């Protein structure tokens, strides 16, 4: 599905990614791990078009997506969440989720020009119904009409996921979905990721929570100082001396 070929990203003299290459297969939960500053978020930023790559190519199926604008990549079916849990605080939960459909179906130049909130191609009631359906599916519908600003951190993270999933993308990039969560909530995140895979969406998960990640991921890529140092199943990764050293060295 996604093919990353020799991707480098430099910030001045800092090499955040150094010729990283790997594939993400269809309908398989792919984990990405690595110590702080190893380039995980930078990789997501490059895949989603928020950052231009310094070198290399990225393909979604047979389409090269390197260098194309972020909203087009989003329309091609790559959605993400952010490490910092961004929601629009002055909108309700369901409205935040609806905004995830709006981006995806945005094709009316009038809407863009006049900054109308929702595309005319879909009525607001339809968008709301679709968003509620997704919240239901993810077990979040009880919070639909709460203000995003009233949510606690963990709830915000879940709503971010709902917003990214509601358009049924091909690929869902989750950047630290369980950060700042307790044990029970982290387990819920793991279950949610499995549910998302069952919807036919391919989840790619960056997480510091090894237990959760090793439990859900079917394939794991390990980054260290911008290098892709290992790739394998969770069992293989946990036994690899190079990976252990990268983590112990980072302590
Ligand atoms: N916009 C930027 N400008 C300059 N340097 C950056 C920028 N974004 C990231 N970096 C640097 O690139 C390196 C990789 O950062 P990145 O955020 O991708 O790491 P990460 O693996 O996501 O780390 P964490 O686990 O802490 O989230 C770091 O050294 C970081 O300081
Ligand atoms: Mg990061």
Distinct ligands: adenosine-5'-triphosphate, magnesium ion
How do the strands line up in the largest sheet? Answer: 6-7-8-3-9-10
Q: In the CATH hierarchy, what is the superfamily of the largest domain?
A: P-loop containing nucleotide triphosphate hydrolases
What's the main sheet like?
A: 6 strands, mixed
CATH architecture label name of the largest domain: 3-Layer(aba) Sandwich
Number of helices: 10
Structural class comes to alpha/beta
Unreliable residue runs: none
What is the CATH C level class of the largest domain, in words?
Alpha Beta
Secondary-structure element order, as H and E?
EEEHEEHEHHHHEHEHEEHH
Mean pLDDT: 90
The N- to C-terminal Cα distance equals 34 Å
Looking at CATH, which topology of the largest domain would you report?
Rossmann fold
Q: So what's the overall shape?
A: globular
Total beta strands = 10
Percent range for helical residues? 25-40%
The proportion of residues in beta strands is: 15-25%
* Radius of gyration over C-alpha positions, nearest whole angstrom: 18 Å
How many separate domains?
2
